[in-house]
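Q: I have 1154 residues here and want to know how they pack in 3D. Can you give me a structure?
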Amino acid sequence: QPRLLPWMSDFEVTVELQHVFGSLCGSPLREPALFADSTGQQVAFAVGRQLAIRHVENNETSFLGTSEKVELITACCASRDRAFLALAEKCTSEARISIYDLRSGNSGPMKSLKPLGTAGGRLLSLAFSAPVEGAGPRYLMASTSGAEATLVLMNWDAEKIICKCKLPGGVDRLSFPSQPENLQVTASGPNMLRLMQIRHAKGEVSLRVLPAFSNLPEKKILDHSWLEGSRLVVIQESHIHIISAEELQVVRTIEAPFGEADLDEVTPLCVRAFTGGFILGGALGYVAVWESDDGGEGESMKSVEEEYRLSTAAKVRPEGDAVCALDITVGEEQLLLGFGNSDIGIIAMASLYSTEEPASCHAMMGNHAAAITAMDMAVHRPLIVTACKGDGTVRVWNFTARTCEIRANFGEDSPCAVAIHPFGYYAAVGFGDRIRLYHVLVKDLKLHSEIPLRAVHQLKFSFGGHLLAAIQGKLIHIFSVRTLTKVTTLQGHTRDVLSISFDPEDHTLWSVGDEGKLIVWNLTTFEQHPARTEPTAKWCAISSIAQDQATCSVMRNGKQLLQRFSQYALEFETELHCAQITRLTHFPGSSAVLAGTDKGSLQVYMSLPNGSQPKSYELPLHGLSCTGLCVSVDGRSLVTVGEDGVIFILGVQGLASHDELAMLPVALHVTDMDKFSPEAQSILASKEEILKLERRCATLMSECRGMKDRLEREASLHEEQCAAKVAQARQKDQAEIQELQRRYGALEEACSAKERESQRLMKAMENRHNEATDQLSKLYQRKLSHESDRLLDLQIQKEKLQEQMLKEREEHEEQLKQAAAAAKEEEKRLLVERDLEIKKHQDLLAFVQHRFEVVREDTAEEHDQEVMRLKHTGWEALEEQKQVEVDLRKEQEYLLRGLEMQEKDREAVEEKQQEAASTLKGLREQAEELKRTLQSLQGERDDRAVTLAEKERRIEGYKSKERTLKKFKILLDKKLAEVVESVQPKDSLIQKLNQDLSDLESEFERQLTEQRVLEEKIDSRRQHAAILTQEAKGFADRLAELDTHIYKFRSDVHTLVTQTDLQEWPKEIRRLYHTHVCEDVQGNQRLPLEEMMRQMRVVERRVTSLAAKSNQIRAMGKMDMQRKANENATLVHELNQLRMLKCSLVREVKALTT
């Protein structure tokens, strides 16, 4: 669900994250996309400065809570069981790690760690250790950036830093083995791979860095992962190395990771291990699966070479985008792929092995692969259009359905600017040498026309849609959308134009330039008002509020200012303490200002007061600068785009009141259109189309008159025939109704006689039931006396068991004391022997290490002379050392097993003592409880006896009634059979009469139906004739009015021509213009195009309402399912508790009975 931050409740205008298009796949971030649950139904991915979780099936997106101080997400990782997720964040003055519980559903972090304290820097990699069964992961390791990386090992649950160590190189990948008992960790960077051991000694934990791996070139290392056992797989340049962590050397090198000879150019980029093998992701959209052949540890070198084999290699991306990130579900059924163009896809593991059809992975979102250079929003449709120069595409998005509707790829002819018409069916795209105008279809863009104009970097439609502004350097070109011709070129800036804004009523155009000049252009005369120039200031963005009002973002002397203009002059300016504002927007009727910054944040200002700081808040969104900002026409949706290629969709509350939202269709489709200039009424229409429609209308009117006359003649004939048929049918139906009423009376008398007989039989059955009840009550009294005698016998057995329990307790305590003393003496002796052996082993290791350091400090010449001898001696010493280590390990294991056995014996004895004590305590409590129970049972026995007697009496009564009813049923069956035999001849007659009656009714209904249909046809044709008559009258009136108007115009023109005084001609021409032209423009006649647009708007409103209703029904169904699931879980929990209570009571009863 959309997330509303708690601190936003103090503001009038609030925003909430609803959806996002984009990801950080293809960036240097490690693990940019992960599975957020064990089944693969949810995907977590970093996007901008947020972390989103998207459901795979219904496309719903939620966001985890990040602070407004977050500047960048630097690393991300999840535990192997998908229970926890760690996020490394670069904040304003510190590096922080936020840990989220994915299973709880909470959006806020459960832990927040600061491993670097208040020092600067950032964390480039994170990794959880393998989870311990029932406890989750124990350790969390992080690595810092820089030439010498610092590794930080933490106990994240206790929020404690255990130890730190430095490595001689950068680190961007950390990895723990999949076995919790294997206390090792690896760190890799572009030029380094190191193995470290986590050691516990004297209550302290340390990291020991082992020597480098032999035979491994430490350059261009891309990724690595732990395999089963003590093996690692490493990607180094285009090769794959299998490394043994025990021997610290490469045991196998794979030079063709993807197998086939034609795939040599496919280089591996990422690796992910799974049970029995590993998966490689490479360039051009290829994925390879390597599986183990289950080779034993004691086999020869040949078995090591054949330990892993290539199972399959497939191209999962037809477009050829590189696979740069991998993740696999816990059950290893689904594979998550992150592509270099920021897309994310999911593919089933089984489809990679399919031979029938090639494996294919489709993108979940269809994101842009580079910075979004331009964005615009339609008014009458929930559409936004974006252009990306980096990937050469223009995309149309439906921000209500949250889908990418159209993806147009232009290849090398990259789009530079884009704008969409307010109606949403027309788009303008700027390229390097021209502007192209497209029709926005359902799934494609259809070229309409082209305008040759080079180097256009911004396009903008007016609010009425009748003008298109194109910025070319320091020039602003104005085009008519109706004729696609240039209206004028606005020349007033001496340097490039940075931003433009139409006022909501299209009277003025505001523009700011790089030279520090602000110009307001009159769109009627295309003249400029007095300009404002500030050479020392940098104008960044502008947004017009009204014809003579606007808000502008200015940078002056390193300070960020917002200026408010009124009456085309500066009213006031406010200094802000934030980053540079690159985009501004308003909502009509609201004082709030929405701004996007060059840091990617959204600034929301409630208003701009004169002389004081505005009330505002900041929401971190993009990782780079914000390049676009648009608000929907209803003020409830906000869309932002940035240089990171991400599109955020946010819900807004507080911009528009409920009354304004309720009146929105009228205000949008009638009032606002009347405000626009007259040219806005005829967008995309032509005179030829209007003439065709008028000719078609005249033809239809003539056809209507002919149909009207014919229908009147047919209607009179049908009325006469219908009246005759109705009179005949009524006479026939009256006779049949009287006969049926007589038959109904006879049947009613027979039913009353049968009812009196059944009442007599019921009274006899009740008398027999009362007699059976008396017999059952006597039987219950005898049973109650027997149960009381049995209770006394159980009490006597209980006293005997208590005496026996006291004797056994004394014997167990004596045995436990003797066993504990013997175990302590044996434990002390074994510990002394183990300490001596460990000391001996440590001295031997210290001697070998000291010898190695002495040899290393010798000069190079001595080293060359003695190298052969030392090698021989070293190998012998190494073999002896290995033998000693093997013997010591065996002795150590033997001692450990002995200690474990002693410990188990001691624990068993303690458990027996505890069990005996608990058993004794429980028996005492049971004895007291039984006493209390006995007292209460004695008091309740009488009440239960009465209750049981009543129940037994009722049961026997019901049984006797059942028997009596069975006998009565048999008797009734016999009598009914006799009645059926006697009535059978009459039934056949009744059946025949009923059949005749039903035939007559059906014939009557059919005739009535025909009459109604005829009457409806007559009424509809009468109405249609009246409508056509009224329309003909309207056309006649219109023709008369037009004749009058033409006559007046001719007379006025004749008067003007006969005027001898030429000085009076300008005055007469102006009068003619105001009398005839202006009156015609402001008239109430509507063009056919306007009627078509009105019908389109009605249909769109219906579709929008249906979509909203379906979303509400879906949400209500989901809530009902969740509520029922919670109720079922509660009932199951209560049922389990009752079962456990029942089992415990059964055990107590058995113990008492034995």
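Q: Anything worth noting?
A: The radius of gyration is 45 Å. The first helix runs from residue 301 to 305.
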